[in-house]
Amino acid sequence: MITLKELAEKLNVSISTVSKALNGSSEIGEATIARVKETAKMYNYKPNRVALSLKNSKTKTIGVIIPNILNHFFAKVLYGIEKESAKQGYNIITCLSNELYEKEANSLELLANGSVDGFIMSIAEETEVNKKTDHFKDILNQKIPILMFDRVSQAITCDKVVNNDFQAAYDATMHLIKEGRKNIILINKIEELSVGKLRSKGCFKAIEDAKQYNSNLTEVKIPSTENVEVAIENYFDKKQPIDGVICIDNISGGAVLNIAKERGYSIPQDMSIIGFSDDNVLPFTSPKLSTIAQHSDAIGEASVQILVNRLESKEPVETVFKTIDFSLNLRETTL
Amino acid sequence: MITLKELAEKLNVSISTVSKALNGSSEIGEATIARVKETAKMYNYKPNRVALSLKNSKTKTIGVIIPNILNHFFAKVLYGIEKESAKQGYNIITCLSNELYEKEANSLELLANGSVDGFIMSIAEETEVNKKTDHFKDILNQKIPILMFDRVSQAITCDKVVNNDFQAAYDATMHLIKEGRKNIILINKIEELSVGKLRSKGCFKAIEDAKQYNSNLTEVKIPSTENVEVAIENYFDKKQPIDGVICIDNISGGAVLNIAKERGYSIPQDMSIIGFSDDNVLPFTSPKLSTIAQHSDAIGEASVQILVNRLESKEPVETVFKTIDFSLNLRETTL
DNA sequence: TTGAAAGCGCTAACAC
DNA sequence: GTGTTAGCGCTTTCAA
């Protein structure tokens, strides 16, 4: 890595002349600018980003904290974040909380030492369950902005980007009701999470708004520690009538489908199933699973746009709460 | 963020005294050390990482370039990388090449301006296909180490971590042969990639080594741009006898299973199927897919260990070529 | 035992 | 039009 100083020596001019010339300053003569630029290119000069960061107190880097990268939803959000960040000239430092409060708090603290200009994150499950918020407040007090997506904290005032979870669940349930399904079950493996509660509420609201259809909704809560398939098998063993299933996390849908098929249900004739997920997560089920499709990459992109806008705006920016649309993808497990 | 300077003012001592005290230098008196540390804690002092980086010409940051984060294999490697990096006190800057040469070269160049101490990466498909290597050489010439995992370049001398791809494919094929399968097909959707070629070779070698069994192996190459399901359907349409299938990429397995079931094959009685993937990628197939299981997180962990060792070692380190074991996970789609 | 000063690479106000 | 200088936050040599 060649530096300005070395370039200056080679050119027999001062460091600041080189600096100004490379930045095309009008203070410097045409000829010099050309000469400097040429030499810089020849030696493949690149401004040292660390020095720039120190000088400007700006790193052009965003800290991203993801609860679980093996969850396709988060992977796709990260995809969106990275894409938009690159476009805006930002790097991302990625930390994975693995759903743990400790790791999340640690990452925030560690990166708040000047490594990043702001954070984009989704809250770890443990943090949500235990309602921890002090670590967020610490960061915000240091005037480092945080943007939360998907799993957000009511108790914290900051930019937020979420799915329209309530509406999505509402629409899916309404669809089953209008199909004529009477005994619908709601598989909730994420009841501890804010989004889980929201989606659950959406389902019940649909039932309420359509009571003339006389559909029933039974919520099956599965603790996050428990095996999905076993829990679902257990419920089926109860022999309650079921003709509709809504899964509000992004893996249960496939499990329900397989179990139902094994038990002899014709899908979708005997039973409709709707999963919750980004497209293409369960591409190989047969029949193909109908889903509530989150536009996960759009969540990532919007998050970056909102955060970068805040970072680069001269004037104070109002807190943003953005809702990302979803779509109901009816494939082969619904009528 | 409080700085050393501000602490020094509050304590009425010099900046260097504060610095030394915080680092527990023996030059400084016990009493002063205690006083300084206390005040530092009170004001929640954290050394500015950017300043440290500039001073030490070390960022304690690794640049990670992933071809496709939506591929579960890479997501899990990233998981391993992040986990081990955090353990070693490194941050990771994540870039996604999305299989494009341009993006890959760009990320390397961008981060080589002092942002990272070294790189961990897997080569983008486009880069491999076009055999581009100059961008790697540029970086290595700047004395910034690169470690390649999974998809590596023969033409470049650097640390490498790979699956034992040849052996994995060999063992899987041998298993099918010993099951008595005679007409085995090899679904190769990644023939352009080095790992694809290696796995393919492993399969053929097994056939050769076991010619007394009289098993046949037919390779079905699917261009990466083509739809897997359509291509597989097309092959099945040819009505060639098939009683064994090996899929050497990590999604085709599920597709083959569904198509075979739809066409009336009993699995595994009529046909054995083995997929290639990390565990739990296709957890909801029925019957459960047998797979060649990569230990993807181990790849990530090993990569970080090797790179960090190189970065922190005083003496020159020999180039490392590490092979990660796999396991053959026989579930329900094999006899 | 403590402090002053230089320097990592860069920019920008100010001199010349 | 070009150069000098200070300073971003930190460590470290050298001087007191």
From TrEMBL, chains A, B:
PROSITE patterns the UniProt entry points to: HTH_CROC1 (PS50943), HTH_LACI_2 (PS50932)
Domain (HTH cro/C1-type): residue spans on this chain: 2-36
Domain of life: Bacteria
Keyword Membrane: no
SUPFAM superfamilies: lambda repressor-like DNA-binding domains, Periplasmic binding protein-like I
GO MF assignments: DNA-binding transcription factor activity; transcription cis-regulatory region binding
Record CDD domains: HTH_LacI, PBP1_LacI_sugar_binding-like
Keywords: DNA-binding, Transcription, Transcription regulation
InterPro entries: Cro/C1-type_HTH (IPR001387), HTH_LacI (IPR000843), LacI/GalR-like_sensor (IPR046335), Lambda_DNA-bd_dom_sf (IPR010982), Peripla_BP_I (IPR028082)
Protein name per its UniProtKB record: LacI family transcriptional regulator
